[in-house]
């Protein structure tokens, strides 16, 4: 730093802070939130840390300064970690034959409280689903009693945690459901994981639809600025601890599955988190990482692309395609995965 101008020294100090924070975030997938809840909050800011270090790298490259090595080394050390945020995948090979399309969609109670100022949101959601025509549809925050789901699904499983709940989770299927169950999380709220065993031809699959604890993050930057930072961090850290317990409960059921298994739904957390790492493990592929492209943003957040809805596919199942549809009928975007059995 001896040969740097004063402004360059200041920039390099900032660069060092962001580089250290990104390096620290590499520990997140291996650090249980119950042990360090506040550290887990850092997972939500990882996209900004990646972007910042990339900008610093470009800055020093353009200045022909050796300080570029700092961000270059940190980004290189987390190569796979960094590219869980952005993918360059193109078209993939499609195996013709016994295919299955599965959609996950947090429908936000079909806009029951008019978060979106549009009276036609329920009809638009249903038209969208009918147009994409998935074989299996998994919904979170499904308004109980809402009878508008297309009649193409003769089989369904809808679960409320409690009788007083306004919404729950649901799975709709074109193929027979021969078994079903619910992992009821022991926490207040409507979050849970449900599963069904579906049969298509000679294949039986177990499909989990999960909705982990919400962190109640507002979509607008103005909303965040109004919140007390200590209370916000405390609430998010507590939410991550609950998510860890919920993920452990679900994975106990997943590990008992006698069939090939798919986990799909709203994780309310990122690909940089402990629960993501524990669920993916060595058994599942993240469909976005295998065949997705771009940022894969699934949450309608104003200030950076956030991917919190996932499709985890058993490695023995071929993934043909993965798409996110940026339709603003909910605060989540629906995802669709195409599989060959």
Order of helices and strands: HHHHHEEHHEEEEEEHHEHEHEEEE
- Do you know the CATH architecture of the largest domain? 4-Layer Sandwich
According to CATH, the fold-level topology of the largest domain is Deoxyribonuclease I, Chain A
Whole-angstrom Rg: 21 Å
The count of β-strands is: 14
Specify the CATH class of the largest domain: Alpha Beta
- pLDDT under 50 segments (min length 5)? none
How would you characterize the overall build of this protein?
This protein is an alpha+beta fold and 341 residues long. The chain has two domains: 6-82; 99-340, Deoxyribonuclease I, Chain A, CATH 3.60.10. Helix content is 34%, strand content 25%. The chain is built from eleven helices and 14 strands. It has a six-stranded mixed β-sheet with strand order 4-5-3-2-14-13. A six-stranded mixed β-sheet has the order 6-7-8-9-12-10. A two-stranded antiparallel ribbon has the order 1-11. The protein is elongated. The model has no long low-confidence stretch (mean pLDDT 89). This is Endonuclease/exonuclease/phosphatase family protein. Its cofactor is Mg(2+); Mn(2+). It comes from Gillisia lutea. Keywords: DNA damage, DNA repair, Endonuclease, Hydrolase, Magnesium, Membrane, Metal-binding, Nuclease, Transmembrane, Transmembrane helix. The chain crosses the membrane at residues 12-29, 41-62, 69-88.
Helices and strands in order:
Layout: H1 6-25, H2 37-40, H3 46-63, H4 68-77, H5 79-82, E1 87-88, E2 99-106, H6 108-111, H7 121-132, E3 136-143, E4 155-159, E5 167-173, E6 177-183, E7 192-200, E8 203-211, H8 221-226, H9 229-255, E9 260-266, H10 274-280, E10 284-286, H11 287-291, E11 293-294, E12 309-314, E13 318-324, E14 335-340
Helix pairs in contact: 1-3, 1-4, 3-4, 9-10
GO molecular function, one term: endonuclease activity
InterPro entries: Endo/exonu/phosph_ase_sf, Endo/exonuclease/phosphatase, TDP2-like
Pfam families: Exo_endo_phos (PF03372)
